[in-house]
User: Fold these one by one.
Assistant:
Number 1:
Amino acid sequence: MAIPVLLFFLTSTSRPERNEMSNVESDLIVTDLCKEYVTAAGSLTVLKGVNLTLHGGDALAVTGPSGSGKSSLLFVLGGLERPSQGSVRLRGRDVFAANETELAAWRQQSVGFVFQEHHLLPQCTVLENVLIPRLAGPGTTAEDVTRATKLLDRVGLQQRIEHRPAQLSGGERQRVAVCRALINQPALLLADEPTGNLDRENADSIGSLLLELSRDVGSVLICVTHSADLAARFPRRAELRDGVLTPIT
């Protein structure tokens, strides 16, 4: 399912308020979440009564076979699609009580996405790509640039900030994508097969970065993956099969 990634970052006209890293409140409560799609063959149910509670700094890996509803779960949690039934609350806010304009503003402020494909803009530098989520307002500030530079330094790309994506390796591009997802200090960080296109060494590096940086920011991290190695590194795991989410003890 295609995602208009640039539009995702640019669909809000309000700038998110700053959060101190130690004060981010990002509890996520998902209640009886269902999602149905209308197809030519009839109604297709992909999520069946999903319930989930996570707190700031928590990290959950969701595994399951292809077609089990993993990406649909992320799309609903991230406000890209509305559920057919149930509710999503983040920081005490009922996400889907909002209209489309309010939902877009909430999504830009509160959610960071990391995709299997990095979706970097080829004409922009590494630094400019990280700053893209900050463009949904009157423009970037010196504080934004400082934060982006610090994130890139944290992931070992301080010498690459003026490079274009074509000058980076696959692992480096995905590190830039992780920094972009975190530039707004989101309450919710969603990763969809973030290591699917990487070799083992780079996959391990990206997995470590996601866990470490999301914990530092205080984000709730949910990662869907087919990688048993990546899932095993998460403190919490669950399997989504036939639309039903089951915790793995």
Number 2:
Amino acid sequence: MTAFKTSESPFKADNTASNMCGFTLMNSQVGVLIANVLRRLDNVKVQDLPSMIRVDGQGKFELVYADVDEEAGEEEGWFNAAEFEEAMSTHYGRMVHLDDKTIMFANPEDAAEYIDFDLKPVS
């Protein structure tokens, strides 16, 4: 009798922290503007796909609305959280919208001050 050994699945569950966060954007005029701004960040990778744009960041990154205004050639205040939400389809990690930027966090502990996440154990 021959014993068969199966190879390890590349799709196995892995619950270790990835230290990654990100979102997908529609491949539209606004999505391209956002992607162009984020391409300049060292810890962000932007992947252009036929119908969407994937944005993945390591640790934490910020989308500063004034940078998108400038990229678009529009006056300050043109781009905001509502415009961003309309261009974005899904995200992973913690997302915090402020008046002037959106911050993405890979780890909830890093976003604690923004999301009222208590780091103290409950007794």
Number 3:
Amino acid sequence: MARIELNDLTKEFGSITALDSVSLQLEKGQIVGLLGPNGSGKTTLIKILNGLLTPTAGKALISGMEPGVETRKVVAFLPDRNALPEYMTTTQLMDMYQDFFADFNREKAENMIADLGIDMKQQMKNMSKGTKEKLQLCLVMAREAEVYLLDEPIGGVDPATRDYILRTIISNYNEDAVVVISTHLISDVESVLDDVIFLKEGRVVLHGPADEIREEKGESIDLLFREVFRC
């Protein structure tokens, strides 16, 4: 069974079509790049998979289930902006994750947070942007989930922080899972991707294994992206 299955998935906002008849399957054990410029439909797709939006037509399935209460038990979601209570301390945020998610591995979270030197007693509102990004990622990646949906996890942070975030994703995801990384910063993530999806104006214009695409096209995913999405 595919971890993620999309069948003619369409999402409209009034007269705007954000996703247009998207069909694909994503298998377990992969890191998948969901690649496209701003406005291509990446965040809309991730929100549908996380149950935050409902499709206008078609269907999305997570491990055979439509997104909803049950799939939230197996989907770990990192939004593109901070969605955690700013008044909470690091310890309180871990307590909250432990209460909400049965698959939360507290020991793994504590080890990642200790590795970063984040103060357990510090409130999130007093942390730097980079530290907030890292803390959110630690909490998400400490879950033993079946699907990880990471929306722009390296957007707006410095190169050193990007490197840490990518290392954290590679070394901490459940190997029986699928990781979807939504981004437009292709050169930073290309080396970790097993599979790539190009989204353009809500349509899939390319989907396949990263190595096969590089071999067939004779160039990097980053260069190909620049050609496909040249303004």
